[in-house]
Amino acid sequence: RIGLPKPYKAYKNRFCEDTNSSHFVNPLKRYRLYTAANCLEECAVDKMVALCGCRAFNDAGNDTICSALEMLMCYIPNRHRSAPFLIENVTSGPNSCHCPEECNTVTYTAALSYADFSSDFEELQLSKAKVYPNVDNLR
Fold first, then answer.
1. Which one of 42, 57, 78, 91 counts the least CB within 10 Å of its CB?
2. Could you tell me if residue 51 is left (phi over 0), alpha (psi between -120 and 50 degrees) or otherwise beta?
3. Model pTM?
4. Residue 89: is its pLDDT beyond 50?
């Protein structure tokens, strides 16, 4: 997907961020790469650190990691309450997150396929090596 940078509006009648421009400076502190998703995640973590004084162990950043008690009493209940707010108020409101979409994005569609675990040849080799004496259980 390719959108034109300012002064043109792209997605949802908003400006996009030209992250490929030589003048682009990544505004994010927690992520090396700017994406709208990283921006929203950083905004959410910043709000939680401001509210609880700590971050979850898997959140990006160098802030203090929440104890189990802080996670239960502050972080978890408030993070779930703030998720709809973040989605609805990405570009408007007093506590909004200014997270424009990137002008150039690539999206991949995932697909799942599956097959039996082993072939007849693999079964024979595993049986000969006595790795699996009963190859009936391999499939």
1. 57
2. alpha
3. 0.66
4. no
